[in-house]
Every structure is written in structure tokens, then in C-alpha cells.
Write a structure and sequence with these properties.
106 residues; alpha+beta; 4 strands; globular; cell cycle; Enhancer of rudimentary homolog; EHR_sf
Length: 106
């Protein structure tokens, strides 16, 4: 459980910058999924059930102006930065575990 700060910039304008903090990397990755789900709900307000696949989630991540994490490193008492590719890898692992598969192909 490493404290994790999620930094998001959804558009070119610096005023779209936000941050969220989480108790763990996995909670943070779930937060990224929730951000995408909220995005889908805003775009499809009359759809009762929203489904998506991991490639759509990754396309959303890629189109964000900036998405990065700062993960607390207890050994150095600092935060280490991680980029979109790292975030996508962690989301992939999280969703694979949630699906109960170790060799599931998304």
C-alpha cells in the first residue's frame, strides 16, 4: 500500500489540471477507470448500462493531455513519477486479476 497521487490534464488548457490521491496504486488505477466511466456516462446520458473494452480505455488515456502518477517510496521518503505507459500496464494487470485470469487476452 503506497500512497499514490494521480495527476490529470484532460485538455490543452492548463486549467483542466486536477489531482486525486489514493491509498494504493490499485485504488489509483480503479480511479482512472472511474474517470473513463464518468466520461462515458456524460457522453451517453440516456444509456442505462455502459460497457467498454480495455483498448477503448487505453485510447482515452492516450488522448488525455497528461496523465501521470506519483507513488510514495517508503525507502527514500519520496514520490516517484510514472507515465501513461506505466499506468496502462498497471490497469491491465488490475483488470486481468479482476477477471480471475492470469493469461486473459484483452
Amino acid at each position: 500500500m503506497a500512497h499514490t497521487i494521480l495527476l490529470v490534464q484532460s485538455g490543452a488548457n492548463p486549467e483542466t489540471r486536477t489531482y486525486s490521491d489514493y491509498e494504493s496504486v490499485n485504488e489509483c488505477m480503479e480511479g482512472v477507470c472511474r474517470i473513463y466511466e464518468e466520461h462515458l456516462k456524460r457522453r451517453n446520458p440516456n444509456t442505462p448500462t455502459i460497457t467498454y473494452d480495455i483498448s477503448q480505455l487505453f485510447d482515452f488515456v492516450d488522448q488525455l493531455s497528461d496523465l501521470s502518477c506519483l507513488v510514495y517510496q517508503k525507502s527514500t521518503n519520496t514520490y516517484a513519477p510514472y507515465n501513461k505507459d506505466w499506468i496502462k500496464e498497471k490497469i491491465y494487470i488490475l483488470l486481468r486479476q479482476a477477471a480471475g485470469h492470469t493469461d486473459y487476452n484483452f
